[in-house]
Amino acid sequence: MYFIMGYRMMLRGFFIMLSLWLCALCAAPAGAESLEEAVAGCQPTAEFVPHSYPGMIIMGSTNNLRRGVGSAFLAQGKPIFIKGKVLDADCLPVTGAKVEMWQANASGVYLKMLNEEEDFSGSGRSYTNNLGEYSFITIMPGKPKEGGGAPHVNFTVNAGGKLSKFSTRMYFPDDPANAGDDDLQDAMKEYHPVGVKMARPGKDDIYIYNIQLPGK
Question: 171 and 86, same structural domain?
Answer without folding.
Answer: yes
